């Protein structure tokens, strides 16, 4: 059932008739070209800009040095504390480092391959519903989304999250066709492991996926509900086994769960990475009532319906968002009289539910959010554009589909013009080319595309080209540039959401320390369980990557966690398990270190003499005052 079928019966063009399992003869070569181009784009210069996010890079390195650190996602090989996310993405990066030797390239290689895999699986999911042309549009749209190019070349957990969510969507498409229990269970498994990449964010797609199956699966209601229950059970088991392992493992024999308040992975999921992200301030940037009255742009800007289009988020993933929303609305309207099991409508409900629910949560959440989170919207936007463009084009003989296509083209051009105007010094002529080309293509689509016969294909190709060239240019600029730190954003170096010319890092101290060879040599010479300890993760992670030594991050990422306690740290020192204490340079938000971290620093300063190492104050914990 296509969008046009509800307007009037139509003739299927010869190019749409499948010639085998892969469709028309051109489909496989076109898919191969898409995947090769995506691989070339994502692998180009991979790792040449350094470690990306030192926080996750240090944890991946620790996973290559110690299997317990690998299992729990420890920030250090001494297993003091974990990162503040579950470790599934780190498992893959660390295994790559063990096989290929740890380097920036070997760490990021799995991320780039996940990007290629996401494009391939998205193509497969869309092709099953609307054919290979729709699949190619969707795959190319995902590959050329700027934030996707950023995250698939970065070491945050979002790359694995997106891949597993797209795999789950493909499995639901297959399950919906025949009410397959096996495919629904596989979808649940994919989402469960996505939870182990980035916790509750993985479940934002569940309403859309579940709704599509519940409405369209070709069996009775109770059978549909039962199959969904099996998928939910598979999701719980594939996520729950690791939660259970962590809870049952003796706490004194594993690292502290970073970001939690009680050393519990479940509390981390429901608290810092769950309810606090949605409902309120988590300590990472101003919450409601913060000084200045406005939330910084690198924390997503102010909550509200316009956040996804705003200065912080807009250029990351919203280039085709207006077209996707128009296509979704038109598709649901044109298929309103379709049979319950219509595959096109089911797919629109699935991807539309993904987009609307995830977009709404991101728009209105009042806790910590960063621009790169929008990568989770990219597959849904791409799929909706691919499906709606192909199905509307099939009905081009009729006015309503043509006008809808023209509206999508014009809206994309206008929105791209607005987004490009936010970087006025970067290719200023591009926005005018995109706007003019999109409007002209839209005009032709609206009034005459149905009269051109096979030549009409040129019109839709031109509309697609003008619609995608702005996003593609931003994506290439993202790949060509250097992006690092915990708050990287996609776009050219002139992209500035942090307040300085060409800035790519926020004010307030986040970022690597200056080079200090003397300090690095000192750390390399220590053979203790932890060569050094310092407050928070920024300096700790940087030193670990430069020296290969284990450095304890007191208080975790921002120094806010109550681990280790003063008594634990004193015991480590007494047993000569930690050699040096390094003052300052933690790089976290001012004032966020915990009272425990402050107590440890005060105890060290009282009982050990300071030394200057390359301009950094260091305390030798093997040399107490008066000892």
From TrEMBL:
Keywords: Cell membrane, Glycosyltransferase, Membrane, Transferase, Transmembrane, Transmembrane helix
Glycosyltransferase RgtA/B/C/D-like domain segment(s): 84-238
Domain of life: Bacteria
Residue ranges of every copy of the Putative mannosyltransferase YkcA/B-like C-terminal domain listed in the record: 527-607
Membrane topology term: Multi-pass membrane protein
Compartments, as annotated in UniProt: Cell membrane
UniProt keyword Transmembrane, yes or no: yes
GO biological process, any: response to iron(III) ion
MF (Gene Ontology): pentosyltransferase activity
Record bears the keyword Membrane: yes
Protein name listed in UniProt: Glycosyl transferase
Membrane-crossing segments per the record: 26-44, 99-126, 132-152, 159-177, 183-216, 228-246, 317-334, 346-365, 371-393, 405-423, 429-448, 455-477
InterPro entries recorded: LipidA_mod_glycosyltrf_83, RgtA/B/C-like, YkcA/B-like_C
GO cellular component, one term: plasma membrane
Segments for region (Disordered): 1-23
């Amino acid at each position: 059932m296509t969008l046009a079928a509800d307007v009037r019966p139509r003739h299927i063009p010869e190019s749409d008739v499948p010639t085998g399992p892969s469709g028309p003869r051109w489909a496989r070569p076109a898919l191969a070209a898409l995947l090769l181009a995506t691989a070339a784009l994502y692998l180009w210069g991979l790792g040449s800009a350094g470690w990306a996010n030192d926080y996750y890079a240090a944890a991946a390195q620790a996973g290559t040095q110690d299997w317990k650190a690998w299992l729990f996602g420890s920030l250090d090989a001494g297993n003091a504390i974990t990162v503040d996310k579950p470790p599934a993405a780190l498992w893959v990066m660390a295994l790559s480092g063990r096989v290929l030797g740890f380097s920036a390239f070997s760490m990021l290689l799995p991320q780039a391959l996940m990007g290629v895999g996401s494009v391939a699986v998205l193509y497969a999911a869309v092709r099953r519903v609307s054919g290979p042309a729709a699949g190619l549009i969707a795959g190319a749209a995902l590959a050329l989304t700027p934030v996707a190019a950023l995250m698939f070349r970065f070491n945050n957990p979002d790359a694995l999250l997106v891949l597993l969510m797209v795999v789950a969507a493909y499995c639901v498409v297959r399950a919906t066709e025949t009410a397959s229990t096996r495919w629904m269970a596989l979808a649940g498994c994919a989402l469960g492991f996505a939870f182990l990449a980035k916790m509750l964010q993985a479940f934002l797609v569940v309403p859309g996926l579940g709704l599509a199956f519940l409405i369209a699966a070709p069996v009775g209601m109770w059978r549909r509900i039962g199959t969904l229950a099996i998928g939910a059970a598979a999701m719980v088991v594939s996520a729950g086994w690791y939660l259970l392992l962590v809870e049952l493992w003796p706490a004194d024999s594993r690292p502290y769960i970073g970001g939690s308040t009680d050393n519990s992975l479940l509390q981390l999921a429901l608290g810092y990475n769950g309810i606090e992200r949605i409902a309120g301030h988590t300590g990472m940037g101003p919450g409601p009532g913060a000084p200045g009255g406005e939330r910084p742009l690198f924390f997503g800007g102010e909550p509200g319906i316009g956040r996804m289009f705003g200065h912080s988020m807009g250029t990351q993933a919203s280039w085709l968002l207006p077209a996707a929303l128009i296509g979704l609305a038109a598709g649901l309207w044109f298929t309103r009289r379709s049979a319950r099991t219509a595959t096109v409508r089911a797919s629109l409900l699935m991807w539309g539910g993904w987009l609307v629910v995830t977009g709404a949560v991101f728009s209105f959440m009042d806790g910590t959010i960063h621009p790169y989170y929008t990568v989770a919207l990219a597959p849904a936007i791409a799929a909706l554009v691919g499906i709606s463009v192909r199905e509307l084009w099939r009905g081009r003989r009729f006015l309503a589909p043509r006008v809808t296509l023209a509206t999508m083209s014009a809206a994309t051009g206008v929105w791209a013009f607005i987004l490009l105007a936010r970087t006025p010094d970067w290719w200023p002529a591009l926005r005018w080319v995109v706007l003019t080309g999109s409007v002209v293509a839209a005009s032709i689509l609206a009034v005459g595309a149905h009269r051109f016969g096979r030549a009409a294909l040129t019109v839709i190709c031109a509309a697609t080209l003008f619609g995608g060239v702005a996003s593609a240019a931003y994506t290439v600029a993202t790949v060509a540039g250097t992006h690092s730190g915990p708050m990287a954003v996609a776009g050219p170096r002139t992209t500035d959401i942090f307040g300085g010319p060409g800035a790519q890092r926020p004010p307030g101290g986040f970022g690597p320390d200056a080079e200090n060879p003397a300090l690095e040599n000192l750390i390399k010479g220590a053979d203790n369980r932890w060569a050094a300890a310092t407050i928070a993760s920024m300096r700790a992670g940087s030193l670990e990557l430069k020296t290969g030594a284990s450095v304890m991050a007191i208080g975790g990422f921002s120094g806010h966690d109550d681990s280790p306690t003063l008594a634990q740290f004193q015991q480590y020192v007494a047993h000569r398990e930690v050699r040096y204490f390094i003052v300052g340079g933690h790089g976290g938000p001012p004032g966020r270190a915990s009272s425990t971290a402050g107590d440890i620093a005060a105890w060290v300063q009282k009982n050990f003499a300071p030394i200057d190492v390359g301009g950094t104050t260091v305390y030798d914990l093997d040399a107490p005052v008066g000892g």
